[in-house]
Amino acid sequence: MKKYIYKASVLALFAGVLFTSCEPEINYDVNPSAGAELDFSNYVAIGNSLTAGYQDGGLYREAQLNSYPAILAQQFEEVGGGEFVQPLFTEAQRNGSGYLRLAGLPTPTSPVLEPVTTELAVRRDVQPLPGGPRLTKYTDPVNNLAVPGISVLSAATPIYGGVNPYFERLLTDAEVGQKSYAQKVAEAQPTFFTMWLGNNDILTYATNGAVADPTNPFSDKTPVATFKAVYTQMMAALTKGGTVEGVVANIPDVTSVPFFNTVTLAAIRQGDNVPDDAVIYIKVGPAPTDVRPLTENDRVLLTTRANIGRPDQVQTPNGPVTIPHGFHPANPLADNEVLDAEEVVEVQNHTKLLNQAIAEVAAANNIPVFDVNAFFTSIKGGFKIDEVNYTTSFISGNLFSLDGVHLTPRGYAIIANEFVRVINSHYKASVPTVNVTNYRTVVFP
């Protein structure tokens, strides 16, 4: 099986989350109660890859079984919750889309990863979609409607079913390209819902170094007005005029996940055969002279690490010359390989505007908001649960999976507990939390 240093070109399709020193309140011993308002008999989860349980650069059966909605549904069962159906891959196809496993860790920032390529749910009998190979269909009604890669913007257009294989697998052949995700959500008829949607309306742009792909209409920052209009439509479909309760989550500061904070200038200089005072150059504009040295305020993408120092043929007035990638102004790291300091501010500011829209729509429908952005900012620097330390460090921090964006099962359990906290506070319920130490972190070889 082929081994390689981490690189995942499709990662920008999928959503992310920030774990950024307080200790979250955990209470395992409560008298379970749904309170006077809540009916969990048909709980439906709306969202993207985070809601699906995506981790390690893929979606697979174990990841689905440890999604935060599955954990929530387990807790809801104690207060009258009904069956929770997920579009699970079968045991025979347990590895789903394929994912990455840790094969070695020569340094903390340069894991050796292997792609898992057996027992997949990838279809070979049809042509792939623009977003990747098609997956085994699951068209029965489900409670976890999460679609990795989806944004609020793409949720509004029927064409997305013919683009994203994770959405296509939930549609009949007749519905592909004809039914939007927003329409699919409107058919769900929940008695209670969670919706964590919107990360990809800024994350996809950020994970491509703040460069929009002209071939992908969903790769730029979603305009705030468009975002709010679609979000309003989806909220109305879920709440049914105020008769259905739920909770929504907002968008974290995506620039603080390990994907953007592992390949630092100091980490590059610690590499083999790299001088301690080495200068790394980055492209910051379209002109040939728009090049400057990398600083600690710039964020080299995790997927860029394998490219640094690559011997490239560069054309000069004296002919082609081999120059290590990133180590000379004539061969800088490309714009889409780095989120520079100004782009970090741009992404953060747009996130604030999208979160304001979420807050306004939620308030208009009297739906509480799990403020993910504020929660993870409050635990910046690390925290501890049951004497276990958690940080934002790549792999060793216990929170993030091998793609540097999505969570470990333990991380998803922590998220589920925070959803419970918001539900209990707003609705005066007593849904029990889960013991997060029952869920694993990164699997080491």
Automatic annotation (TrEMBL):
Q: Taxonomically, which superkingdom? A: Bacteria
Alphabetized GO MF terms? hydrolase activity
InterPro entries the record matches:
GDSL (IPR001087), SGNH_hydro_sf (IPR036514)
Instruction: Write the record's keywords in alphabetical order, separated by commas.
Output: Hydrolase, Signal
Region forming the signal peptide: 1-20
The protein depicted here goes by the name SGNH/GDSL hydrolase family protein
The organism named in the record is Pontibacter rugosus
